[in-house]
Amino acid sequence: MSSGQLSMNLATLRNGSTFAQMIDDCLRHGVTAISPWRDQVASVGLTEAARIIKANGLRVTGLCRGGMFPAETAAGRQANIDDNLRAIDEAAALGADCLVLVVGGLPGSSKDIAGARQMVTDGIAAMLPHARASRVPLAIEPLHPMYAADRACVNTIDQALDIAAQLGEGVGVAIDVYHVWWDPNLAAAIARAGREQRIFAHHICDWLVPTTDMLLDRGMMGDGVVDLKSIRAMIEAAGYHGPQEVEIFSRDNWWKRPGDEVVRTCVERFETVC
């Protein structure tokens, strides 16, 4: 595999680098696909970010993130939808392959997870006409069940696909190995996603043992227990051959290292263990 099949989710480079510095680190190692976060784009300005991307011929495999739909009040839910409409505009301006949706958890003190999931479906339905008109696919990213209460009440590929099937064209899934590697139905779910042509992104990192922080201690590929090659084979058998996008939240390790070292290591591991 070449680094041309690798995308760098810029969350992996949260070491204090500027947007332009992150791009330079990627290009130095032959990485020409990125997935920025909205705050990183905002830090340099949408127009300037789009200019940098175009000037360097970069592919944007996704924009992170939309979502976070549930809220305690109708006004809160509408405010979340409005923010997602802005995220669609940003994704369109950057030419992103998709807008990644981390859907949100239980609002306030609620214990009604079914109700939260309905808010997610309703929220995506409300933004979908604008997404279709803007030609921005929406990729629901199921998160590990440990996040069901606070970050994402959609926790398996099958759950995400059920929502996508209900809503129709333009809604699919982002398959992040960190969140789905444990699922005993993983192979069947990936195959289903392929049949329904709803695989929009593939994110990689590794699950460390022990993991010291459930959010901010993801591992570099090869340092943990995820069978990355097997999952990649499933995804390719399902018909998706797009880039693998490295997304590593690592407050106490990789975020403390120079971007050049991080990108170089990502490329080396991609070529050997992914």
3D structure, described in words:
There is one protein chain. This protein has helices at residues 19-28, 38-44, 46-55, 74-94, 113-134, 157-167, 177-180, 186-195, 228-237, 259-273, and strands spanning 6-9, 33-35, 59-60, 63-67, 99-102, 138-140, 171-176, 199-204, 244-246. The protein is globular, with a radius of gyration of 18 Å. The N and C termini lie close together (9 Å). It is of the alpha/beta class and 274 residues long. Helix 2 (38-44) crosses helix 3 (46-55) and helix 8 runs parallel beside helix 9. Strand 6 (138-140), helix 6 (157-167) and strand 7 (171-176) form a beta-alpha-beta unit. Helices cover 44% and strands 13% of the residues. Strands 3-2-1-9-8-7-6-5-4 form a 9-stranded parallel sheet. It has 10 helices and 9 strands. The mean pLDDT is 97.
